[in-house]
Write a structure and sequence with these properties.
Blueprint: E1 4-5, E2 7-10, E3 13-16, H1 17-38, H2 47-64, H3 72-94, E4 105-106, H4 115-137, H5 139-147, H6 155-193, H7 195-235
Parallel strand pairs: 1-4
Antiparallel strand pairs: 2-3
Helix pairs in contact: 1-2, 1-3, 2-3, 3-7, 4-5, 4-6, 4-7, 6-7
GO cellular component, one term: proton-transporting ATP synthase complex
Keywords: ATP synthesis, Cell membrane, CF(0), Hydrogen ion transport, Ion transport, Membrane, Transmembrane, Transmembrane helix, Transport
InterPro entries: ATP_syn_F0_a_bact/chloroplast (IPR045082), ATP_synth_F0_asu (IPR000568), ATP_synth_F0_asu_AS (IPR023011), F0_ATP_A_sf (IPR035908)
Length: about 240
């Protein structure tokens, strides 16, 4: 049976209640995690503070690998925010797959398993990278550097590249997470179809749950890395 999202109608407008609920839950989880691991920082950090600092330094390394060293601090928080949101969004639906039975409405899924969410994130990335480029260089210098360099006739291609970046960045994330949820649903259906399929389905479910953690983390890493690559192209002036 095909699962449907929980649709909310307000003033003639339709909203995907499942995505709204899961996005709010994702933000709440991130806030609680950062607050729990980062509260009461000490000069001699404990395990919780060490874990948070390791994650912060890991993301800082992603930024420093792609943007000039003097500007790492300017974009570190942006990268951290994207990484945490995408990581938790990926894992919340892949690691914990919950379906309200017997209803065919799905109240629990990864926000990033919806193309609207991933395409919106990708669009935000492209808009922000252009904004930061204009802010640093001024509109005229930015346009010449980003769209008319090294030769002017490449301008249409470079403008089209922004649109393709939105598509590739958003669809890559969506495809991986959506496929993972579909497979988890199929394995769960296999386990509940009969008592003979329960035993082979159980180890498959456990294995794929572990692999889902890996996939979710890798996709968050790729998204943030590509974001910093796009950003570096917009803020660095080509000689």
């Amino acid at each position: 049976m095909e699962e449907k999202s929980w649709i909310i109608n307000i003033a003639g407008l339709s909203f995907d209640g499942t995505i709204c609920l899961m996005t709010i839950l994702t933000c709440a989880i991130i806030f609680c995690l950062v607050y729990f691991f980062g509260r009461n920082p000490k000069m001699k950090p404990g395990r919780k503070q060490n874990a948070l600092e390791y994650l912060v330094e890991f993301i800082r390394g992603i930024v420093s690998d792609n943007v000039p060293a003097k500007e790492v601090n300017d974009y570190h928080l942006l990268a951290f925010t994207f990484f945490m949101f995408i990581l938790v969004s990926n894992l919340i639906g892949l690691v914990t797959k919950i379906t309200i039975f017997p209803s065919d409405t799905n109240f629990w899924k990864s926000p990033t398993a919806d193309p609207i969410v991933t395409m919106t994130l990708a669009l935000i990335v492209v808009l922000l990278t252009n904004y930061f480029g204009i802010k640093k260089q001024g509109f005229r210098k930015f346009f010449v550097n980003s769209y008319m360099s090294p030769v002017k006739f490449l301008t249409p291609i470079k403008i089209m590249e922004d649109f393709t970046n939105v598509l590739t960045l958003g669809l890559r994330l969506y495809g991986n997470i959506y496929a993972g949820e579909v497979l988890l649903t199929l394995i769960a259906s296999l386990g509940t179809s009969s008592k003979f399929t329960f035993l082979p389905a159980l180890p498959l479910e456990v294995i794929w749950q572990g692999f889902s953690v890996f996939i979710g983390a890798i996709q968050a890493y790729i998204f943030v890395t590509l974001t910093m690559v796009y950003l570096s192209h917009k803020i660095e002036v080509e000689e």
